[in-house]
Specification:
By secondary structure, this protein is an alpha+beta fold. It contains 4 helices and 2 strands; from the N terminus they run αββααα. The two termini are 37 Å apart.
């Protein structure tokens, strides 16, 4: 998924999950396990979705490959009831207190991502060039 992350990160910061992994889902065929050719990328900020739709729709993922169809995800409720997904991984919560802590952890992760995304303190090479008179 790192190639997909690099490609879509051109339009914004990709949201991370509870395990600090990028929220990218590549759908696979259940019988063969091979990618179907579609997926889902979750951005940290909504404007990034609009930008990705404008810039990456019709672009080629790799030179010579077919054009991508990039659009905002549409979520629909299947059936008459909503069923919450079961927790997985090391952060699995079984108690009410554990679930409240998971919500706090998610909020903390989001705030950390947002701070990193908006931080101007990183070394992008520009400040060195200006300081060195290049």
């Amino acid at each position: 998924a790192s190639e997909v992350e690099t490609f879509f990160a051109k339009c914004g910061v990709i949201k991370l999950d509870e395990w600090n992994e990028p929220r990218i889902k590549i759908y696979t065929d259940s019988e063969t396990g091979k990618p179907k050719g579609d997926g889902l990328v979750t951005y940290l900020k909504a404007p990034s979705v609009d930008l990705a739709c404008q810039i990456l729709d019709g672009a080629q993922f790799r030179p010579g490959s077919h054009e991508l169809d990039v659009s905002a995800a549409k979520f629909e409720m299947k059936g008459g009831t909503y069923s919450k997904k079961k927790a997985k991984g090391p952060g699995k919560a079984a108690t009410v207190a554990g679930k409240a802590m998971d919500a706090k952890l998610k909020k903390k992760i989001f705030e950390k991502q947002e701070k990193k995304a908006l931080d101007w303190g990183g070394d992008d090479g520009w400040s060195r060039a200006v300081n060195q008179g290049d």
